[in-house]
Amino acid sequence: MTIYWDEVPSPVLAIQGFSAWYGKAQVLRGVTLEIPERRVTAIIGPSGCGKSTLIRSINRMNDLIPGFRAEGAILFRGLNVYDPKVDPVEIRRRIGMVFQKPNPFPKSIFENVAFGLRVNGFRGNLRERVEWALRRAALWDEVKDDLHRKTGYDLSGGQQQRLCIARALAVEPEVLLMDEPCSALDPVATAKIEDLIRELSSSVTIVIVTHNMQQAARVSDYTAFLLLGELVEYGPTRELFTRPKDPRTEAYITGRFG
Fold this sequence. Notes:
The chain is of the alpha/beta class. The protein is 34% helix and 27% strand. It contains ten helices and eleven strands. It has a seven-stranded mixed sheet, with helices on both faces. The chain starts with a strand and ends in a 5-residue tail after the last helix.
């Protein structure tokens, strides 16, 4: 495993010797990785290499899957998210998630964004916060006249994904996890999401799983390459894509396998 530690800023997340299983099947093997704050980190690798398992472990989404177990530690600002004293609900508020397929609720656009705020007992001006989140997700101008008339299902696929991003941003997470957020979108919608990712990274740490090499090169500052559940190489995206140090990394990014 090759890691350019000296070139990584202070981490907000530190994954330490993390292994994971679904039942008897081991899917992650001793992954150690530091994720810098207010940067975009891409996780790449062939199907079945453990990419989604890794990011879903960061905010303990995998706890909801029967038979899942893990060893090692994932530190969020120095606190192990798997410590028994840690509330997973609070972790999921501070570490948000955007899924591969947009999953708006069967509610109005307004209520989609307000949902997490209501659940978390938000006491401020709800309308102002909803507008703020929709603006951050670059969706406000497209939906401002239909906040209560249309549901999330009435929007296009790309708009639905930005709505889900707004819903995640509304509670002001410190980290936003994205699991192949553009895989179900057309090129125009994908470009809007990529532009949004770059804009958001000035204030939110973003970790994105992608199967698209070009997308990883476009949007990320750092890239981690996983293979068969192991971290093969990690470093600045430009370095990893132009001068990979591990032959397996070079073989994957040049299309010789995967």
